[in-house]
Amino acid sequence: MVQKVHADADAALAGLLFDGMTVMAGGFGLCGIPENLIAAMRLAGVRDLTVVSNNCGIDGFGLGILLESGQIKKMISSYVGENKLFEKLYLSGELELEFNPQGTLAERIRAGGAGIPAFFTKTGVGTLVSEGKEIRNFDGDDYVMERGLVADLSIIKAWKGDHEGNLIYRKTARNFNPMMATAGKACVVEVEHLVEPGQLDPDHIHTPGIYVDRIIAGARFEKRIERVTTRPRDTAPAKDAV
Prior knowledge:
This protein is of the alpha/beta class and 242 residues long. It has six helices and eleven strands.
């Protein structure tokens, strides 16, 4: 039996990292990001990375720490709005960016994991998104061709997993993580709860263990909020009902 469980993030990434590699990093904003694996990648010092992720974390956290250390060469993303350093590096020409509509990015990853090299979509036709890409007409409508995405490594976050790599995600974390797990040549996962085989209800498993190569129980999770938005508390006494 293949031993998938590793002691920590450093051990789980050992032998998989190299300069110039392409990495898929799961999560949506700061929800469901593999923060322990990202921190280990920073300490490993691997450079010239192409990173496929919905966004690039925030300044000082998530993938943002790889930007700060100059380890990322190119981002393939759909949202950059919460990271000032991302904006600065892109505008100065220090960071390459392949910008995608969010649904297109998700489908490119899913297609890569399914062995589909390309597909056609209406999204982006007639915009900058379609420049330099093949346009084909189907049933009277134009579609732009998008390539599927694969990576040398996928780093994933799940809520619960077993020793065989079967995974369950919670809520918003079940966005890019499941499809990225299928699209990496190697897949390393961190979970909040690591359990024995047979303790997960098969009907609740989102990612089968066949896609997972290595798994760890995350050392700690900060679970930060990107932008805290609140409203003033109403301290006035409630009016009597009429």
